[in-house]
Amino acid sequence: MTLTRKNGLLYLAILVGLIVLPSFISVKYYLHLSVLALIWVIVAQGQNLIQGFTGYVSIAQAGFMGIGAYGTALLGLNFGLPVWLTILIAPLITALFALVAGYPSLRVKGHYFAIVTLAFNMVIFIVLLNLTDVTNGEAGLMGIPKPGAGRDGAIDFADRTTYYYLVLIAATGVTALAALIVNSRLGRVLVAIRQNETLVGAAGLAAWKYKLFAFVVSAMFAGFAGALYAHYQSFINPEIFTIAQSMDAVLAVILGGSGTITGPIIGAFAIVFLPEYLRFADSFRLVIYGLILILATIFMPRGIVGLASDALGLLKKRLAR
Amino acid sequence: MKRRFTIGAGLAAAVLAASTSLAGAAEKELLVGVSDALTGPAAVYGVPQARAVELAAEEVNAAGGIRLGEDTYKITVLSYDDKANPTEASNSVRKLLDRDGARFLLGFCCSGATGAVASFIQNEDAVMLVGNAAERSITTRGIDNLVRTRPPADYTGAAAGTFVASKGHKRVAVIGALETSFYAMYVDAFEREFVKGGGEIVTREAFGLKDRDMTPQLTKIRALEPDALLVVGYVEPAAFVYRQSVELGLEVPRYGFTSGSEEQFLRVVSAEQMEGVWDLRPTELTLQSTGETGRAYHENFTARFGVQPSPSSPYAYDQLYALRDAILKAGTAEDAAAVARALRELPVPKEAVMQYIPIDGRMFDENGQAYTTNGAFQWQDGQWVFVQELPSVAEDYSRFLSSVDG
Predict the structure, then answer these.
(1) For residues B289-293, average pLDDT
(2) Are A68 and A206 in contact (CB under 8 A)?
(3) Which residues lie below 8 Å from residue A298, measured CB to CB, with a gap of 6+?
(4) Which of A206, B205, B236, B335 is most buried per CB count within 10 Å?
(5) Of A10, A127, A149, whose CA–CA distance to A70 is shortest?
């Protein structure tokens, strides 16, 4: 996973592409979807740390998004704290919850870990739904302010293009952080845990500490994404943070390419844009979407990135002949 | 000769005027976007609403469209499924606004999804008309370009509480979708008025939207020996409660807040098991409670779609006629802000099916909220029968709504 010159050029090309993307979008609806996709890039990069690199499938990312989203919204609405500050506090609150949840959860492995995290997501959802005095229950929180000084300020974050660049900066930062982690000694230990956890223990490393680190960081990413989502949509309710959305995070990693840095970026855009493009199929769209996902999981185990890499290799071989 | 010339010149002038008029007249498209729950559990409200808009649009088009000066607007309805999900609703509406160019948004059966759209709609050059979504906060924020045809849940809940107390019940057990805020709001208002009448709520049992077995909650309720049962929730789970209450031998009067049609209930519960059930809700469509307009709506809807309309579906039907009148009053279909202002000044459209109580002669109050009377409906011999109006004062509630902050 070392950052080669080729990889660096690829990331740069993706970044440049994303920077100029708004200039090519004439219909603002697609800009809206792009903002959502970039928020999902942040979630997916976190999911990739625990799922793709460490080999533990967590089905709690939407719950962590919810903690971040409600954290920032409630701190702002109830205590009048500045939006920028609450956005930065949100991942820290999420980290605390992840620490409490992760410590016992990571004692179990494989499918059991997935089930425990799934239950954790359900608990978060039920709390958000029933703690009506704080969360306003199913009706949710409306009027969550945008960052900055509003429409009269120097930068208008109510403008979608401006918000797009804000989330692009955030997604780039998070992706760079993820790349930094996986290219460090820490990242190599995470991969080692995925490949043979017993061996890691035998080498004298406390695997649980590394797993907990990956779990907490992935939750922080999700909490950060949730905060950005809350201020973008100006509305949140528990419905948005259900297991279905956690599954989207899992799928983004599988579809894009598990254990790669580019994969979650591609996967995040796929899970946001694909269901929208399939709307032409009306009520069959979710069936088609499901079918695509099943086929992709069976026939593209390394995701879109793996497929592209294979195709590129094949092309090179043909050209070399 | 002179006379012939005069007649000829007159005829020529008339033909010329007519042809000039025809050349100037233009038929334009007025795109109306609908965002509603077309699939999923909330589709029992969303699908009839979307169809109601379609029906109204067809009627307006058949009557010549909306004539503004020399232009005639024919309505095209574009519907998207928001599955009653906030993110889906935001996406649907963004698409309608940004991609399809719709400026008038109708539908919105469910509060969560509606709240999500309401949170950003004030920044858009568009008008939003909300139908069946009953959560109070949708109109407490005083959003200039949003109006709602259905009254909030607590407005009806309070009237229902007074009504049940007047029936002499002292101990009422509640079972409902209490995680859904507008049902909880209905029950809170119900309790407030019921307690004033000397009663008490002995328990509040909850069920989820997808729950179908409510026997544990009903068994507990039976042990508490209440005088009556109050069922609040979406049609299907409520129908299961009514069925299972009979199966468990819970022989107490049953009251509810569901807005389900006979057809929707009979998919789950038999007519005999429903006998005597009360539905305490805004005076929505039933053949007994409505006038000529409502009966025509019922007939046309059934003929057009092959199923009966649900009682709450006319909230969406009335939206389209309110929109038409507002466009006519504003004199423009291009200036959404002018249409939004005109909506606030509008009397109740003559085609409206629901029985609205005008506030100062207007359909919508200063919050953009419309009010209907509240009614007590009872299931008798396989159908809902309108029995009486419930006590409720729209002006008082409107003042209260204005006093609620956000």
Answers:
(1) 81
(2) no
(3) none
(4) B236
(5) A127
> Quick check: A280 pLDDT over 80?
no
Q: How far apart are CA A237 and CA A128, in angstroms?
A: 8
Q: Which residue of B has its CA nearest to A237?
A: B112
Give me A8's structure tokens: 């660096």
Partner-chain residue, chosen from B98, B180, B182, that has the shortest CB–CB distance to A32: B98
Cβ-contact B209, B111 below 8 angstroms: no
Q: Residues A162-213: pLDDT tens digits?
A: 999 999 999 999 999 999 999 999 999 999 999 999 899 898 888 989 999 9
Angle (deg, nearest 10), helices A61-79 and A83-105: 140
CB A56 within 8 A of CB A215: yes
> Within a 10 A sphere around the Cβ of B80, how many other Cβ atoms?
22
Residues B349-382 have pLDDT tens digits of 999 999 899 999 999 999 999 999 899 999 999 9
A contact test, residue of B143, B179, B182, B405 with most A CBs within 10 A: B179
Report which DSSP code applies to A141: B
How far from A111 is each of A51, A57, A119, CA to CA, in Å?
12, 8, 12
Contact of B151 with B126, CB cutoff 8 Å: no
Whole-Å CA distances, B23 to B19, B26, B70: 6, 8, 10
Residue that wins the pLDDT comparison between B316 and A8: B316
Question: What distance in Å separates the CA atoms of residue A252 and residue A144, rounded to the nearest whole number?
Answer: 27
CA distances from B276 to A254, B194, B223, B387, B391 (A): 55, 21, 22, 12, 21
Q: What is the mean pLDDT of chain A?
A: 89
Contacts for B18 with CB less than 8 Å, ≥ 6 apart: none
Phi, psi (deg, nearest 5) at residue B375: -135, 155
Q: Is there a contact between A229 and A65 (Cβ–Cβ < 8 Å)?
A: yes
The per-residue pLDDT for B398 is 93
CB-based contact A29 B123, cutoff 8 Å: no
Band of pLDDT at residue B152, cut at 50, 70 and 90 = very high
CA distance A62 to A6: 33
Q: What is the pLDDT of residue A109?
A: 81
Contacting residues of B for A76, CB less than 8 Å apart: none
Q: What percent of chain B has pLDDT over 70?
A: 93
Q: Which residues of A262-298 are buried (b: 16+ CB within 10 A; e: fewer)?
A: bbbbbbbbbbbebbbebeeeeeebeeebeeebeebee
Q: At residue A205, what is the residue type?
A: L
The DSSP annotation for A47-75 comes to HIIIIIIS------HHHHHHHHHHHHHHH
* DSSP letters spanning B53-82: HHHHHHHHHHTT-EEETTEEEEEEEEEEE-
Interface test with B, best of A138, A229, A236, A273 (most B CBs within 10 A): A138
CB distance from B246 to chain A under 8 Å? Answer: no
H or E element that contains B230:
strand B228-232
d(CA B311, CA B279): 11
Q: Is the dihedral of CA A52, A57, A61, A64 positive or negative?
A: negative
Residues 56-95 (B) with a CB less than 8 A from some CB of A: 80-81, 85-87, 90-91, 94-95
Closest CA in chain B for residue A145: B119
Nearest to B168 by CA among B193, B124, B198: B198
